[in-house]
Design brief:
CATH architecture of the largest domain: 3-Layer(aba) Sandwich
Helix content: 25-40%
Radius of gyration: 21 Å
Shape: elongated
Number of strands: 9
Distance between the termini: 61 Å
CATH superfamily of the largest domain: Vaccinia Virus protein VP39
Largest sheet: 7 strands, mixed
CATH topology of the largest domain: Rossmann fold
Number of domains: 2
Strand content: 15-25%
Amino acid sequence: MNISAGDSIAALQARLPLDPLENRILLGHALGLTRVGLITQSDRTLTADEAARLTELLQRRLNGEPIAYIVGEREFYGLPFHVTDAVLIPRPDTELLVELAIERLPVRGRVLDMGTGSGAIAVAIAHARPDAVITALDVSAAALELARSNAERNQVRVEFLRSDWFCALGADRQFDLIVSNPPYIADGDPHLAGGDLRFEPVSALTDHADGLSALRTIAAGARAHLMPGAWLLMEHGYDQSAAVRALLAHHQYTEVQSWRDLPGIERVTGGRCA
């Protein structure tokens, strides 16, 4: 597509080949304008530098790069988050995990978010429940740096630890709730080669095994760090709910159940530590 100096904002919103929302996001990012600014300045024409910048952004999107990586931001649970290709892009499906966590968190409860990535889950819980004490861990130093910046951006307090699952936790660390959205796509799944997933960090998507190994590790290790009656909540794949329920039952969690996301898919499974 040819974008030139002199093209108006209004004309480009109608001509750009993406869906209207993505057209608006790219235009706003290229021009440094808010949604309101795009409306109030719709007759403004682009400079040569702006046209070149928009052309480059558009080509990246047409090549398949996720728009969140292009603009470096994604909204999650009503909050703004910086994102880079070091972390997964926060998705609306994961908001279910946050809602379930908030409902089950006691006053001044202690929460552990395992594999925090961008920090979306931990920060969202901390923002909704400022009384809570939140700890978040990840094995990736780059992810933790980004998560810290997101906590600061949203003005919440979260303790961040670099850890390969439970390794950095002392044996006496106890929590009133543990949540996780771990890698759960099986190695070799064709979805890994399509869409946005092509650009996201592979180690955050797949366990390089059957898709259940991280879930097994969390379910087995969480009991030592959960207070009696505390919940473990884990997000998983669209076809894994029965396997995860069986896994939690095997480790003698009680009240084991799954919850459906907005499209009706069983997306989160959890149980209580007896």
